[in-house]
Design brief:
It is built from 5 helices and 3 strands; from the N terminus they run ααββαααβ. It has 175 residues and is of the alpha+beta class.
């Protein structure tokens, strides 16, 4: 049986064809929504699985603590360090707040004993910096590493061991 043109159909047949077309459209939308739902669920599942794989192993942190025997201890150097710079005829300042990370809390008293030497050398390192370079993340990281090395050198000379594991910026203001 050959299909009839829309001109030759009765109003009931036209209405029936519209209903069939709408039903097909609804089915396509439902199928599309279902497919999108499956994709979203798969994406979320994949992301969670990837995060689980990348997650730090809590046992590794525990074993690192067991190796050193101590959890991290933070000692803040107070007051903050301030250094001045002359940039194109204008006075600029850098204010840095530092914390030392170490593993043996009993060493803090020994660090305090040598605080004048530490503060002096930190200020010397800060005043020797190029102000423009400190504006970049790389410049800040290089400064942090230089401060760590300077502090470790002093403590190794005075205490016989570097004691400090990390130097951390807890404040960094440039004006």
């Amino acid at each position: 049986m050959a299909e009839q043109d829309d001109d030759e159909l009765t109003p009931e047949e036209l209405e029936q064809r519209k209903e069939i077309a709408q039903a097909r459209k609804r089915k396509r939308l439902i199928a599309l929504a279902a497919a999108l739902s499956v994709l979203i669920v798969a994406s979320i599942g994949g992301t969670l699985a990837l995060l689980k794989m990348l997650e730090d192993d809590p046992d590794a942190e525990l074993s690192a603590r067991e190796e050193t025997g101590y959890a991290a201890v933070y000692y803040t150097l107070r007051p903050a360090f301030v250094s001045s710079y002359q940039i194109r005829g204008r006075q600029r300042q850098l204010q840095v707040e530092l914390a030392l990370m170490l593993r043996d809390e009993s060493k803090i008293a020994r660090i305090e004993q040598h605080m004048p030497s530490l503060r002096n050398n930190v200020l010397m390192v800060l005043s020797g910096q190029v102000y423009e370079e400190l504006r970049t993340p790389e410049g800040k990281e290089l400064l942090r590493q230089e401060l760590l090395q300077e502090i470790r050198d002093i403590l190794t000379r005075e205490l016989g061991e570097p004691v400090v594991e990390q130097v951390l910026f807890t404040g960094f203001v440039m004006q």
